[in-house]
Amino acid sequence: MDFVFTVCDQAAGEVCPVWPGHPVTAHWGLPDPAAVEGSEAARMQAFRDTFRAMENRIKLLLALPLASLDRMAITARLRDIGTSQ
Q: Phi/psi class of residue 22: alpha, beta or left (left: φ > 0; alpha: ψ in -120 to 50)?
């Protein structure tokens, strides 16, 4: 396992389990779209927004020059991605 990402907004303050292989971890918190109340359209939009944010973050991850970065730099970049919209 190379990377572990937490995505629940509430997970940032929780203790994470120990993962095999000592992966790089980062918190990419997003609001829970299932918690959105309102019309069907509003709930669907919340899921679309969450999907779009995750898609953008994954694209940024895939664009990183991982082979030329050390672990500390990768961790910093992943944390920066987690704050992007």
A: left
Q: What is the pLDDT of residue 10?
A: 65
**From CA 69, how far away is CA 75, in angstroms rounded?**
10
CA 63 from chain centre, in angstroms, equals 15
Residue ranges for the chain with pLDDT beneath 70? 1, 10-14, 16, 85
What's the rounded Cα separation, in Å, for the pair 53 and 33? 12
The residues, any chain, with a CB within 8 Å of residue 22's CB and separated by 6 or more, are none
Is residue 1 packed enough to be buried (19+ CB in 10 Å), middle (13-18) or exposed (0-12)? exposed
